[in-house]
Specification:
- By secondary structure, the protein is mainly α.
- The protein has five helices and no strands.
- Helix 1 crosses helix 2 and helix 3 runs antiparallel to helix 4.
- The longest helix is centred in the first third of the chain and has 35 residues.
- The N and C termini lie far apart (about 70 Å).
């Protein structure tokens, strides 16, 4: 599934780059790609630190930063898309860096995968705990060690 998507996206990116290059010129196209990458990297840094601060705040309040971790995943994928040269991947990457569209991506991912995660058949959860110690155990609880003073 991912290989055909990769091939199709690469061909679309080449087509868009060539079309834009014919319209505004090759040098202008290259500069535009560089400018979008610089804007994206600035947004990536800002949104990454913002999400990190929200995660730390959630942990400080005793909450699990699950949503912030998903936001971090979307930000990471957006960063990879911004590093890939091209206008389509830059547009998708920039959308992933904007908080309102990032929430949409997370909701979409969760709605697609919730049923898969919570309806697994034949899945087993095993929790191993320490056995209860008996008061009259036969074990020797002596710890052997050395001590000296200077």
């Amino acid at each position: 599934m991912i290989f055909p998507l990769f091939v199709i996206m690469t061909l679309l990116e080449i087509y868009v780059l060539v079309s834009v290059g014919e319209s505004i010129g090759g040098l202008s196209t290259i500069l535009l790609v560089i400018i979008t990458a610089l804007i994206g990297s600035t947004l990536l840094k800002q949104q990454g630190w913002s999400t990190m601060a929200k995660a730390q705040n959630a942990m400080a309040n005793g909450q699990t930063p699950a949503f912030e971790m998903l936001e971090g995943l979307v930000i990471l994928i957006s960063g990879v898309l911004l590093l890939t040269p091209g206008f389509i991947t830059d547009a998708i990457g920039l959308l992933g860096l904007m908080p309102f569209s990032r929430v949409y991506f997370i909701d979409h991912i969760l709605s697609k995968n919730t049923e898969k995660l919570f309806s697994k058949k034949d899945s087993v959860f095993i929790h191993k705990s320490n056995p209860v110690k008996k008061k009259n155990s036969d074990k020797n609880d002596t710890i052997d060690g050395e001590f000296w003073e200077d």
